[in-house]
Amino acid sequence: MSKHDIGRRDFLKGLGAGAAATALALAGCKKTNDAPAGASVSNSGKSSAGTGEMTTRMQPGTGEKVSLLGYGMMRLPTTAGDAARDSDAPIDQEQVNRLVDYAIEHGVNYFDTSPAYCKGQSEHSTGVALARHPRSSYYIATKLSNFNEDTWGREESIKMFENSLHELQTDYIDYYLLHGCGMGGMEAYMARYEDNGMLQWCIEQRRRGRIRHLGFSYHGDIKVFDYLLSKHDEVKWDFVQIELNYLDWDYADEINARNTDARYLYGELQKRGIPAVIMEPLLGGRLANVPQYVVEEMKKRRPDDSVASWAFRYAGTPEGVLTVLSGMTYMDHLQDNLRSYSPLQPVTKEEESFLYDIARQIYDLELIPCNDCKYCMPCPYGVNIPAIFVHYNKVKNAGRLPRDVGDENYRRYRREYLVGQERAVPRLRQADHCIGCGRCMPHCPQNIKIPEELHKISEFVEKLKQN
To answer: Exposed e or buried b for every residue in 235-268, given b needs 16+ CB within 10 A?
Structure first.
């Protein structure tokens, strides 16, 4: 069968006319303040949030129109009112249904999930919500998330794919990814995808139509990224998922030596005409919680826009971007992001310069580069690693970290930090319970030296208590 045999009739109904021309290659990867290429806007989605029509981008080769806003199904709401990745409470399926209905009604058609999201509940919940709509009205993206060595075998990996079809209530996947390539380096990549023959198996499923587009998501070791792109003539990657935001554009490798600047990643994809799917446009929420003086400057320029919208507009501006993923738990998150892309107003040169200045200031803060993805969890000793890092970064980002005992604000900041930590992290799950086993480190996409950072925070907190 050809690539599109499965579901061809339904699929063709959802296709737009024509195919997109691939974007021009970037000229080199030297760090400058040049802007990424401006967006071309196609207003063919439905009316959104009272602002206009959803901006769409074309998938090369098929001409299908993909919403610039993609729904990341990794932070689904629970019956406890929080996000499933942060809670043991069951997913609130009625609320997920309402969010999905609203998203589709307002032009969103790309839904990204994984067997690993929401503690294994995401695919099932996503399938329940989407199955209530015509299959031609949405695209499903999911992943071969065989992180655990127990799933590296060919039989176990194939079983994961078949289970994804079952949970998502479909007989084909529109966008299928090799998940987290680069985590663990080349050895882990080869064991997960090539030594077991799974890459070739996925290519065969694409030929049969069970996978319509094949790609990979990248974290960590740049050697793996470069190796995978060197196989493009053989594999014909349909898309690649990368981290891109106005901080990572130039500072990813300076914040963490094993990360790679988005300028390079995006540029390499552009050279080959491979569409980019964007993750972490807000860096785990860090770019929605910038210092107050930055918020004030943003409001002067665009009084009606949220802080988060600046990051979303930036991520959506390069024309080689197919869709920008956002994990949306609440309706107000969804509505705000819809406004950012309905339609997209590309960032101007002046706005880009402004955002790059902010990036430099955030970089100078030397925050722990944690995106709160929770891949490091659970800790075998009960430490709530991401909550500890998020609290530390939040306080430091606000300029309220108690450092100098002689400072007039020291006692107030000290109390704020300790009380805030008690509220954010139960005492038995705080940094002083880390024994330095290092089991968390291979799972961190940002390659943070987690035990080292936890011990620094533990020593810092102990000094605060002594004072």
So the answer is: bebbbbbbbbbbbbbbbbbebbebbbbbbbbbbb
Cα distance between residue 414 and residue 401, in whole Å: 8
Distance, in Å, from the CA atom of 404 to the CA atom of 411, rounded to the nearest integer, reads 10
Residue 72 class from Cβ within 10 Å (0-12 exposed, 13-18 middle, 19+ buried)?
A: buried
CA atoms within 13 A on the CB side of 165: 12
Q: What is the pLDDT of residues 66-98, one digit of tens each?
A: 999 999 999 999 999 888 877 789 999 999 999
Give dist(CA 30, CA 212) in Å, integer: 35
Copy the structure tokens of residue 166: 């079952």
Report how far apart the first and last C-alpha atoms of the chain are (Å, whole number). 71
**In this structure, what token pair is assigned to residue 461?**
């907190």
The rounded distance, in Å, linking the Cα atoms of 77 and 98 is 11
How many helices, marked H, and strands, marked E, lie in the chain? 17, 11
132: exposed, middle or buried (Cβ count in 10 Å: 0-12, 13-18, 19+): exposed
- Longest alpha-carbon distance in the chain: 74
DSSP lists the bridge partners of residue 277 as: 241, 323
Q: Is 77 helix (H, G, I), strand (E, B) or coil?
A: strand
This prediction's pTM: 0.76
Residue showing tokens 């590296």: 152
